[in-house]
Design a protein that fits this description.
two-stranded antiparallel sheet; 1 helix; mainly beta; twelve-stranded antiparallel barrel; single chain
Length: 257
Amino acid sequence: MKKSTALLITIIVLNVGTFCQAEEDPGYLGFSFDLTYTSKWLSKGVEAYGSKGGLFKTIDVDFWQTGWGVKVTHRNATSSGYVDSQRFDFRPYYKGLLFDGERYQTNYNLSVGYEHYPGLSRHKANTTYEWIFAFSWPKLLPCGLVPGYIAHYEYPASGGDVNRKVAGWVHRFLLGYDLKMEELPNPLHLSTEVAYYDGLGNKCHDWAYFTIGMSSKFNITEDLAFVPGVYLQRTMDRSISKHKDIAYTMLSMKYVF
């Protein structure tokens, strides 16, 4: 079975399951909008826009609180030179949890994305598929530490693309902690991440980068929040970036309809 056919079947099953479940247990159709500025876009550790910043606009549709949903994102650089790198992401997903209330409770988010670069020729891999399998274990460790794991598998959408051999995996291992502070209305979220590249983009098969960061949420209204964050990446393999240490900020405005 072709990968494109498998993707189509997945989307059909997703939608059929969504509407059937919505009829049995109707909730509400939820919408949210996220506008994020990043001083540098570290896409799986790679400086996708070089030294330029990035602007991401995302609409997230929650299908009646069933766990099913879809995100649509437009990504672009904040200045010239990367017009061909602007991208649209269309990503249906399903999220939920297993072993609710147990120490080994597992939260998961499974998705497949269709990524389109409108400025590129179709022969230069202007569309790619990306599968993301994300898991976290909020009760596994003591003291509020939350481990996580995210696996990415990406490949060109067409077998005739000149970049058809760049398919591969990236494995990300995360650890988060929410630090409560009297000076802040919401906890300060501290995070660490280390990533292992397994061939994606004809890059390394090795540990690629390590990132630490902190962020917090400030409620402006009941439906609008501002989320600033600062991060530092230590590059461990030069095929990912020629810069050893990369500091960047992310500023997000999130609105729930």
